[in-house]
Amino acid sequence: MRVRLKGINHARVRLADGSVEIYYYAWRGGPRLPGKPGSAEFVAAYNKAVKSRPAPPAAGLLSIIKAYEKSVDFGDLAASTRRSYGPLLRRIEKEFGDFPLSGLADRRSRGVFMGWRDRVAEVSGRRQADYAWTVLARVLSWGLDRGMVPANPCEKGGRLYRGSRVDNVWSADDEALFLARAPKHLHLPLIIALWTGQRQGDLLRLPWSAYDGTHIRLRQGKTGARVLIPVGAPLKAALDAEPRRCPVILTNTEGKPWTSDGFRASWRKAGAASGITDLRFNDLRGTAVTRLAVAGCTQAEIATITGHSSRDVGAILDAHYLHRDPALAESAILKLERGTKFSK
Question: What is the value of pTM for the model shown?
């Protein structure tokens, strides 16, 4: 049986004795192949050469994606963000890896990318489509800033997902219900989240060395902000009663640090068992902001604890929480009554 090998190159070579011999190469500029064409030695050498041949340099949009993943900007992202970007970058590669960079300057390319976002929304949902669009826009923005692409057609693309979690704030009843029905090893994560307003990832990594008995010191993984949080009495009681089985404060039933996936799965099960299905652990951060505001804290005071900027605190309160919290309305009217002189 004859085997057709692609890319074989040959050259006629005159030897020192004047004779002429034909040398065969795996490809032009590739390694020389021993043996006679068609022999087992020849075929084996060809297959080995092809297998070890370096991949051609990335071209098109793929080259920008690969360069971005090697950049300092990508490396500076939080580890969780880099992990979440990975599948989306591979998805973009599959769809647009060979998209010519010159085509990015064509105004019609924006429609091409938006059409892809619409298809992602149909398959994976609007939130995932928005996230994929954001990642693509970020890669192109990075490339544009460095003169690697002529334009960023994905700039200011808007959002498909219009969902909101304005009502997803833990009430005192929700907290009491969870503490009554959820496994005991999940009580401390609830309390520490409510009394610090920190993200799940930062709390799962928080070591005992960050707690000195009166304060918690941490550096936020997402923003790099350093926060010093006074420990309230309920949180202090919970921390002081917790056995220190591990350098990390929050541990699973085996006394080992949680993985992100393991914690989310356990929390989801505990919430379902407690009858709390519309609230997530991440809602505790916004709940902490709301409770601090209801207690009369200023935006600057809240920002000092949670690590938000003062402006972000205002945006969170205005857009998501405070206008739905009746306690604030009642507090406002009481203050108005106390400050208003009226006759009976």
Answer: 0.61
